[in-house]
Design a protein that fits this description.
Shape: globular
Radius of gyration: 31 Å
Mean pLDDT: 85
Strand content: 15-25%
Number of domains: 3
Bound molecules: zinc ion
Largest sheet: 10 strands, antiparallel
Helix content: 25-40%
Distance between the termini: 36 Å
Oligomer: single chain
């Protein structure tokens, strides 16, 4: 049995040209293999209407021709699988050779189709933008929850189309009128005729939930757009303009410290935040530069930053925070790779919460004809039928366009490209298979067994020091380094087994020599399987002498407790004849500890939002000689092995980059989204 999932979607090749690839992927592949774009096999391209023809006929006819062309395409692709009886390889099995040349009888089964909404409407032959293709809800009724809605099945919908033909054999318009209340096209759907479909593919239940298109490119931007529009209404044009500028500069500085998660918000959050509200009267259109987001996880990154931005953007509107909190909770649950009845029930409940809140805040009109908004209600249904979303992910089939269309296109003369691209892909994939077969046939060279590699621990980045400096001169190189000498002596004091810091500094040990070998940062080897390490990256920059804007925030485990700090300097030095790898860190305190230190109450700003807030720690004070004064900035030294991962500490939107005592929030969304 060969169970496959199909996907097709239009993709742009240039300003004028596009392609319409159709892909297959084997469901037998392990999940990680299935999620590689190279696992998606190109089956061919749907034809499109010639541009000349489109220009010369009415738009209604264009739509009708497109549909007819699509149906013919589907029939051509699945031709043999639509046949009745013994000619059908799906029913009778088809003879195929495996990689070892052994013959097998293979029964092909189509399990799911991955489509963006317009494709799903075309494939299910439901009326676009006016009805759900899973249930029979019409646009405009989407706000209300109907747990007992009947879902479409191939049998029920085929029956309706048959009834239309029986009642009105002569009149196409009467058949259309008959079918309209059911949201159906009055035509026979080729997907209705797959034999064995009852146990396998039903076009209505087999249309996978398209997370990328429905959530990250569908509803989420609507919510962000709605929020920004509301702000725009409440303030003057000049104020809105300023808000745009401050968000952009916040993103640039936050993004710079966040190369950890691979996001280069080099010119602001660009088209995603602002693109939808661009118009001639929009002051942001001229102030916001539309940079490129370079992460592979663009949409998740936006989620990761949006809620922590919202804390200061709309401090007096907790209902917006609640909406996005519910929405992100829903997305997290949706992204689970393991579900039970309980998690799916929770998924449905969160869905109700955010749908209600969104309609309350933005009005029904924003969602009136948006089937994607409504489809979230069916997410649990799809997970029950097809497994976790990652198993039928439209982001993966979207990525398949690179090998299925974009790269092949570069090998054409850019005229009548589909046949050229198909030929190219055929040859390329054949070569790949031959190479693979050769690998399997030729015996692997015998490699002497490795001695078990020694486990690698964290170490400083770079093989050689970027600078060798005397301790005394380093302390004068930057204001943040002024307490380095003290920190070194206290570290050696504690490392020698002292129980507390209570000692005169003159009695504390010193390094063998004053030479410090400065390095650019930390290279993490430990805990690479920890998602926090994966998200935060392996290379954490921290050398204020090299680049001040690049300092990472880190989580450090010491004495069983977790501490957060800013990585200021990384260096090796000699102590008792040994090379030690050390990090000089500026510590954070929770705002609670910080308020206690100054004997004050927490401020409104510190209490805002769902994230834990932090400020730079201040020195608690000591009766012994040589210690920093009470209230001085608090620095310390740690061993390179105690670094856990990059901590997503995000500065408040209200505090400038050089504010005296900036407020930071631990953006846990960065880990959880
Ligand atoms: Zn529905």
């Amino acid at each position: 049995m060969l169970a496959v999932t199909t996907a097709y979607d239009k993709t742009d090749l240039s300003k004028e040209q596009g392609a319409f690839p159709i892909y297959l992927v084997s469901n037998a592949l392990p999940l990680d293999e299935k999620r590689k774009r190279s696992s998606w096999v190109l089956l061919g391209y749907f034809s499109s209407l010639p541009a000349k023809l489109v220009a010369s006929i009415s738009s209604g006819r264009v739509t009708a021709y497109r549909r007819a062309l699509r149906l013919k395409g589907l029939e051509a692709i699945f031709d043999s699988y639509l046949r009745r009886g013994t000619e059908n390889p799906g029913l009778m099995g088809a003879s195929m050779l495996d990689a070892h040349g052994v013959e097998h009888t293979v029964y092909l089964r189509l399990m799911a189709g991955i489509w963006d909404y317009p494709e799903a409407a075309a494939s299910t032959m439901t009326l676009q933008n006016s009805t759900c293709y899973v249930c029979r809800r019409m646009a405009g009724e989407f706000q209300w929850y109907h747990p007992h809605d009947r879902l479409r099945t191939v049998a029920s919908e085929m029956q309706k189309v048959r009834e239309a033909w029986a009642a009105h054999p002569q009149s196409a318009s009467a058949r259309a009128a008959f079918c309209r209340p059911y949201g159906l096209q009055p035509e026979q759907n080729p997907y209705h005729f797959f034999p064995g479909m009852d146990g396998g593919f039903g076009v209505y239940s087999g249309a996978a939930f398209a997370r990328l298109h429905n959530v990250y490119e569908g509803t989420l931007p609507r919510f962000i757009e709605g929020t920004l529009r509301l702000i725009q209404k409440q303030v003057t044009a000049a104020e809105f303009n300023r808000a745009g500028k401050s968000i952009d500069s916040w993103l640039i500085s936050t993004g710079a410290g966040f190369k950890s998660i691979g996001t280069g918000f080099s010119k602001g959050l660009s088209h995603y935040f602002y693109g939808n509200i661009l118009d001639s009267n929009n002051p942001w259109g001229t102030t916001v530069s539309f940079g490129k987001i370079t992460s592979q996880d663009v949409y998740k990154d936006i989620c990761r930053f949006w809620r922590v931005l919202l804390v200061d953007l709309l401090p007096n509107a907790p209902e917006f925070m609640a909406l996005f909190s519910d929405y992100f909770d829903w997305i997290r649950l949706l992204n689970n790779r393991h579900h039970t009845e309980a998690t799916l029930a929770r998924l449905d409940r969160f869905c109700e919460f955010w749908m209600d809140a969104a309609v309350r805040l933005f009005g029904k009109e924003l969602f009136w004809r948006r089937i994607k908004f409504h489809l979230a209600k069916h997410a649990s249904h799809f997970i029950r039928l097809l497994g976790a979303i990652d198993f039928a992910d439209d982001a993966t089939s979207e990525a398949a366009h690179i090998e299925g269309a974009k790269e092949p296109w570069t090998h054409t003369n850019h005229r009548n490209v589909d046949p050229q691209m198909a030929k190219y892909v055929e040859r390329r994939d054949t070569m790949r298979l031959l190479r693979l077969a050769r690998q399997h046939q030729s015996p692997q060279p015998q490699v002497p067994p490795f001695a078990a590699a020694a486990p690698r621990y964290n170490e400083l980045m770079g093989q050689r020091p970027v600078q060798v400096r005397e301790l005394g001169s380093v302390t004068r190189a930057h204001p943040l380094l002024a307490r380095l000498t003290y920190a070194v002596r206290l570290y050696l004091h504690l490392a020698a087994g002292a129980i507390s810091t209570d000692a005169h500094v003159r009695d504390m040990p010193t390094l063998d020599s004053d030479a410090l070998y400065l390095r650019p940062g930390v290279h993490l080897y430990e805990r690479l399987d920890d998602p926090k390490t994966l998200l935060g990256g392996r290379y954490l920059h921290g050398n204020v002498v090299l680049k001040e804007s690049d300092l990472s925030f880190i989580a450090v485990r010491q004495g069983g407790a977790l501490w957060y700090g800013q990585l200021v300097l990384c260096f090796t030095a000699l102590y008792l004849g040994e090379t030690v790898e050390l990090l000089y860190v500026r510590w954070f305190d929770t705002v609670r500890a910080s308020a206690r230190a100054f004997n004050r109450a927490l401020t409104e700003k510190e209490l805002r939002g769902p994230f834990e807030a932090y400020r730079f720690s201040v020195f608690p004070g000591s009766y012994f000689h040589g210690h920093p004064p009470t209230g001085a900035p608090h620095f310390g030294l740690v061993d390179v092995s105690s670094v856990l991962y990059a901590a997503p500490m995000v500065r408040s939107l209200e505090d400038a980059h050089d504010a005296a005592d900036p407020l930071y929030r631990l953006n846990t969304d960065a880990w959880e989204m």
